[in-house]
Design goal:
eight-stranded mixed sheet; 11 strands; 25% helix
């Protein structure tokens, strides 16, 4: 069974890393269930294993933490729903690419509940929305904004980290980094798109669509 936990308030990032380590250790030794943990962090930046120091544009704005996950720099803060998924891929299929694809599908299905079309883009991990209300890019292609980031770490086929979906964060806070090392694109949120969505609404949609993508009880 997958245990679902929702933390109120803002969870310090070091505490989150410790709790993920503890849960993953328990899954590996058979003493703990899989878990999806929904939370918010105080404003901070995280650096993945591929982070380019040049992409940290403002060193003094917020604390910067080494995340020990794949990927580059990301922002976390109030108004962003972070979902840490600690799942056993020994039971769900030892396929990292498929797992990342499932995380993206989870977000895309969740956004669809709010009539938002989320899309994948080759070479740009995460979930994107087309912005016809913004000027096109220099090459003439439509503007796109990132609405959700994905980062994973795997130990002996048990997963850490997961997704972060922008519900109503301060989008100016992303300005201290090049999010995920991707330039020329912006970030958006459900509220920025004009949708009066609450965190509770998102949590309900995440729960429903997790079961649709991952299944509650894998073989």
């Amino acid at each position: 069974m997958v245990e679902w936990t929702i933390s109120q308030g803002l969870t310090p990032y070091p505490q989150a890393l410790e709790r993920m380590e503890s849960r993953v250790g328990g899954i590996l030794d058979g003493t703990r269930d899989e878990q999806v943990w929904l939370l918010e962090h105080p404003p901070l930046y995280t650096a993945g294993t591929s982070a380019d120091p040049a992409d940290l544009l403002d060193h003094d704005r917020f604390p910067v933490y080494q995340a020990r996950r794949g990927g580059e720099y990301t922002y976390h803060g109030p108004g962003q729903r972070v979902a840490y998924a600690m799942l056993d891929l020994n039971r769900r299929g030892r396929d990292v690419r498929q797992y990342v694809n499932n995380l993206e599908d989870w977000v895309i299905r969740t956004l669809a509940d709010f009539n938002v079309i989320g899309e994948r883009r080759t070479g740009r991990v995460g979930v994107w929305v087309v912005r016809p209300d913004k000027p096109p890019l220099p090459d003439g292609t439509p503007a796109e904004d990132k609405i959700a980031a994905i980062g994973v770490r795997i130990r002996r086929w048990v997963t850490f980290h997961g997704i972060s979906l922008n519900v109503e964060p301060d989008l100016d806070h992303f300005g201290g980094i090049v999010p995920c090392g991707i330039r020329n694109y912006g970030v958006t949120s459900l509220v920025d798109l004009g949708l009066p969505v609450t965190m509770e609404d998102v949590d309900i949609a995440l729960r429903r669509n997790f079961d649709a993508v991952f299944g509650e009880n894998p073989a």
